[in-house]
């Protein structure tokens, strides 16, 4: 049986699904973001042709035939070679995928210690990776009480084999192995100087993931980031953090077109992609939906999710009179702020 067959996926994926369904502390924000409808799309009734919409996107020296990129949740793809199956699905859909250093497959197959980080960067460069994504919202791990209750056990990190020795024993007083791993690898002193150091050891473009304010967005541009990803870590870091769709426009205005702005979090339908594009995103990144597809049908399931989102986006664009992504503009979406200002 193939290691990514649908039956094995169903057996091995459940711990991952449990983790992907959790959030920070009381999981308040995670639940509310899932329920939130966010901005409303606005239809137009122009006489434009509704034929085939163009999705082409280009950023970080990489072209994509869709505005949907794949960002598999790290620690979650516990299916054997799950990242490989997801990468193949992304390639089949002519889009890009971000591979976490915490994946269970080595980067050849698809932190606190700078020597380890430098080694991983050099390996990525030698294998033809197009960019580096630096997560900046995890100097420490958020309190994930569900993981603590479940005694979450992180899978082996193939990319760290021979580079770091991690304690395999769970805390005798309770807790999750993920917490211990984070304590041993995450650097609470992470600062903008670390971005400068990373730029000094690689020629690859660097995107900063976890930007949700105008202040940080402007600083990211100042230190030479090639792009920013508006992300709240799937609502698994800080409870009551703003939904990314709410923070997106602030970040877009702050960078003022200097670098691409991507966004993740809460994307479940093509209409979610459409609204993000209307608010200024260059592209969106999806994680949990692809994981669910992988759980159901392996590589074919992951591919189906991406294709479904693309079809839904095309439909939304057609109904709003947009023949290409370039024609999706701010006038196509109505936010809560717009509704309040209209009443003043």
What can you see in these coordinates?
By secondary structure, the protein is of the alpha/beta class. Helices cover 41% and strands 10% of the residues. Helix 4 runs parallel beside helix 12, helix 9 packs across helix 10 and helix 11 (270-278) packs across helix 12. The protein starts with 5 loop residues before the first helix and ends with a helix.
End-to-end Cα distance, whole Å, is 63 Å
Element-level helix/strand string: HHHEEEEHHEHHHEHEHEHEHEH
Beta-strand segment tally: 10
How many helices? The count is 13
The CATH homologous superfamily name equals Aldolase class I
Q: Beta-strand percentage?
A: 5-15%
**What number of structural domains do the residues give?**
1
Low-confidence stretches: 1-18, 45-55
CATH topology: TIM Barrel
Query: Whole-number radius of gyration?
Result: 20 Å
User: Considering DSSP H and I runs of 4 or more, what fraction of the residues is helical?
Assistant: 40-55%
Strand order of the largest sheet: 4-9-8-7-6-5
Please give the CATH class: Alpha Beta
What is the residue-mean pLDDT, rounded to a whole number? 76
The major sheet is characterized as: 6 strands, parallel
CATH architecture title: Alpha-Beta Barrel
Helix vs. strand class: alpha/beta
Secondary-structure map:
Elements (H helix, E strand, L loop, with lengths): L5 H7 L1 H7 L7 H8 L4 E2 L15 E3 L2 E3 L3 E3 L11 H11 L21 H13 L5 E4 L9 H6 L26 H9 L6 H10 L4 E4 L4 H9 L4 E4 L13 H12 L5 E4 L5 H9 L4 E4 L1 H32 L13 E2 L1 H8 L1
Parallel strand pairs: 4-9, 5-6, 6-7, 7-8, 8-9
Antiparallel strand pairs: 1-10, 2-3
Helix pairs in contact: 1-12, 4-12, 9-10, 11-12
């Amino acid at each position: 049986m193939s290691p990514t067959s649908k039956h094995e996926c169903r057996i091995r994926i459940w711990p991952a699904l449990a983790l992907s369904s959790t959030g920070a502390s009381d999981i308040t924000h995670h639940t509310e973001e899932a329920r939130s409808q966010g901005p409303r799309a606005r239809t137009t009734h122009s006489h434009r042709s509704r034929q085939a919409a163009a999705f082409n996107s280009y950023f970080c020296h990489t072209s994509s035939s869709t505005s949907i990129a794949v960002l598999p949740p790290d620690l979650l793809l516990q299916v054997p070679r799950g990242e490989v199956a997801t990468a193949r699905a992304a390639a089949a859909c002519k889009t890009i995928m971000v591979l976490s250093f915490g994946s269970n497959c080595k980067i050849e197959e698809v932190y606190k210690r700078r020597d380890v980080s430098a080694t991983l960067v050099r390996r990525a460069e030698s294998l033809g990776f197009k960019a580096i994504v630096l997560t900046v919202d995890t100097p420490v791990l958020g309190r994930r009480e569900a993981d603590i209750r479940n005694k979450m056990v992180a899978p082996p990190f193939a990319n760290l084999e021979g580079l770091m020795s991690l304690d395999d024993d769970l805390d005798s007083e309770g807790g999750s192995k993920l917490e211990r791993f984070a304590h041993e690898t995450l650097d609470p002193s992470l600062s903008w100087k670390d971005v400068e150091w990373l730029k000094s050891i690689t020629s690859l473009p660097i995107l900063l993931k976890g930007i949700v304010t105008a202040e940080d967005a402007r600083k990211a541009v100042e230190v030479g980031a090639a792009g920013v990803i508006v992300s709240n870590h799937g609502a698994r870091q800080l409870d009551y953090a703003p939904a990314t769709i709410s923070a997106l426009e602030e970040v877009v205005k702050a960078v003022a077109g200097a670098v691409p702005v991507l966004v993740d979090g809460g994307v479940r339908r093509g209409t979610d992609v459409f609204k993000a594009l209307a608010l200024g995103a260059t592209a969106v990144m999806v994680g949990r939906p692809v994981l669910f597809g992988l759980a159901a049908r392996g590589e074919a399931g992951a591919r189906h999710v991406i294709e479904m989102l693309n079809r839904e986006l095309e439909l939304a664009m057609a109904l709003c009179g947009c023949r290409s992504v370039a024609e999706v503009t701010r006038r196509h979406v109505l936010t809560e702020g717009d509704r309040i200002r209209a009443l003043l």
